[in-house]
Design a protein that fits this description.
Elements (H helix, E strand, L loop, with lengths): L1 H10 L3 H10 L6 H11 L29 E9 L7 H4 L4 H11 L6 E9 L5 E6 L4 H17 L7 E4 L3 H4 L1 H5 L5 E4 L9 H15 L7 H17 L11 H15 L2
Helix pairs in contact: 2-3
Length: 261
């Protein structure tokens, strides 16, 4: 533990780097073990090392300069609602909840639906569809429809598309479907790099998916079109100065057009 403390103070290395250096010195410790020792020493965060409390890191913000500069895309996997509703409607231990559970025990699966979403990083204008899977062909078809939807709202050109490292986004067919847009995949296991759509996923979960009780998946899917209108045209957004995304988009498009005149 003394060697770990010395390396942490002197070099300010991460747990992974310390484990690697110890391995070179003939000391075999896993990264997780080194992390536990750093936590016990009170050195697990960078600001604990520097006497001034500095983090020794300068955070970088991901900022879209104009509408269409960066469109963030992601998929949210959601459990399918059984016909008649589940325990959220009828309560745990209810007759309906027990019926659904018996169906599962007999091999019937409720399954999942997949919310494919695209968010404009500048205005936060968002487009969401309920789709049956997250395969590459499904993601490509969604991308084409999202592009047409954004174009109808004034975003005629998408410069860059940001996604995670899901299999559907790594497919060669997806890359060929970008139509000249720059594709940026985030650093693995770093969802904050795709934070615009991650934040949107949290909003849609809190304010739509679980904000009320649904009696069927069809009912919830049909209501999604109402949510799309509410979010884009009526719901105030903090990143848009308290305005709905559509109003900020309108101002952004006006500014872009003015720069060409």
């Amino acid at each position: 533990m003394a060697r770990i403390e010395a390396l942490r103070h002197a070099e300010k290395w991460s747990a992974s780097r310390i484990a690697f250096e110890l391995q070179a010195e003939g000391i075999t410790l896993s990264r997780r073990t080194v992390s536990r020792h750093l936590h016990a020493l009170g050195l697990n965060r960078r600001r604990f090392i520097d006497p001034s409390g500095d983090t020794n890191r300068e955070p970088r913000r991901i900022i879209a300069r104009s509408p269409g500069h960066m469109v963030h895309i992601d998929v949210k996997k959601v459990g399918r609602i059984p016909d008649g509703g589940g325990w959220r409607v009828h309560g745990r231990g209810s007759h309906q909840a027990k019926t659904v559970e018996r169906r599962k025990n007999k091999g019937a699966r409720g399954g999942y639906v997949y919310l494919h979403s695209a968010v404009d990083g500048f205005s936060r204008l968002a487009y969401t569809e309920v789709l049956p899977d997250e395969k590459a062909a499904t993601a490509i078809a969604f991308l084409h429809r999202a592009r047409a939807w954004f174009a109808a709202h004034g975003i005629a050109h998408i410069e860059g598309i940001v996604t995670d490292n899901g299999a559907c986004y790594r497919a060669g067919t997806f890359a060929r479907a970008l139509l000249g847009a720059r594709h940026q995949r985030i650093t693995p296991y770093t969802p904050r790099h795709n934070g615009k759509v991650e934040r949107y996923n949290r909003i849609i979960a809190e304010e739509f998916l679980y904000a009320r009780s649904w009696v069927s998946e069809d009912q919830r899917s049909d209501a999604l079109s109402v949510w799309n209108i509410h979010y884009n045209y009526h719901r105030p957004h903090g990143a848009a100065g308290g305005q709905p995304p559509a109003l900020r988009l309108r101002a952004g498009v006006t500014n872009v057009l003015a720069s060409y005149t």
